[in-house]
């Protein structure tokens, strides 16, 4: 988790280099970054050893998927609204 935080701050510090430096698999850095992004309140618990990274990552993954689902639904809703609303409503008076 600490390495993921460092690699997040330092753009030039690539994920693979971070993993090599910490002696862990690159996938663990990726999981930790997901936790930092989607479940940041769990990061301290992971660092303290009270929550396993795998559990925090599972929660972060669920949140990421839920966010993507909400965003996709919002896009569909917007598209459906544009289809149902007559063009003159949002384009002004249509002349023929």
How would you describe this protein?
This protein is mostly helical. It is built from 6 helices and no strands. It has helices at 2-9, 15-22, 26-38, 43-48, 53-84, 87-91. Helix 3 (26-38) crosses helix 5 (53-84). The longest helix is centred in the C-terminal third of the chain and has 32 residues, at 53-84. The relative contact order is 0.10.
Concise description?
With 96 residues, the protein is an all-alpha fold. Helices cover 75% and strands 0% of the residues.
Through-space gap between termini: 62 Å
Global outline = elongated
What is the makeup of the main sheet?
A: none
Write the element-wise H/E pattern from the N-terminal end onward. Answer: HHHHHH
Q: What is the number of strand segments?
A: 0
Total helix count? 6
Mean pLDDT: 83
Proportion of beta-strand residues:
under 5%
- Rg, Cα atoms, Å: 21 Å
Helix content: over 70%
Low-confidence stretches: none
Helix/strand class: mainly alpha
